[in-house]
What does this fold into?
Amino acid sequence: MHIPDGFIPLSQCLIYWIIAIVALYFSIRWASRKLDERQIPLFAVLAAGIFAIQAMNVPIPWGTSGHMVGAALIAIIFASPWAAVLLLSIVLILQGLIFGDGGITALGANILNMGIIGGFVGYYLFKGTRSLGEIPAVFIAAWASIFLAAIACAIEMWIAGTFPLDKGLAMMGLYHAVIGIIEGVLTVVIVLAVQSARPDLFSFKEWGKEKAEVLSK
It folds into this structure.
């Protein structure tokens, strides 16, 4: 899903960069206000894990690839889509600058797809489907976050003239619909593991509550 340099015209890259910079501003503001220092080690560990899972790529026709993303996991664990934007941006910047995984000019588009779309879809779908049960909600949020991020990627490359829309949507959608099942299962496993190991940092019971509300109990 990492878009390389040259796949999107520079004028379109500029638009995605502006969107990404604005989102980064709000994600850094979230971190300064909401990210507890006790959460930072968990944030770092999850960043390393996401960096690793994104290295496992499945080639997709027309020069892109499919892989897990992890944005819904971060949005759920930290109860904010801005956490996903920040963490995915850090991962994508390092991958682009050091490992050549994703282009520099296309970095804004990659942040938009995996960080912003992945994070916001994951967060709000989990929030909106919790009435179905928390485990199904985590799975649905994780699956839909990667699937819709892939669809957005295909549309962007169609607008850029890189992909034919029908084949792009079919290939990106099909591959990521399957990868999304793996991502959904892994997200459920990791969320339950974090809740079991560090219920002080994450639990379904306290999800979305402000720290003051939790401490006042």
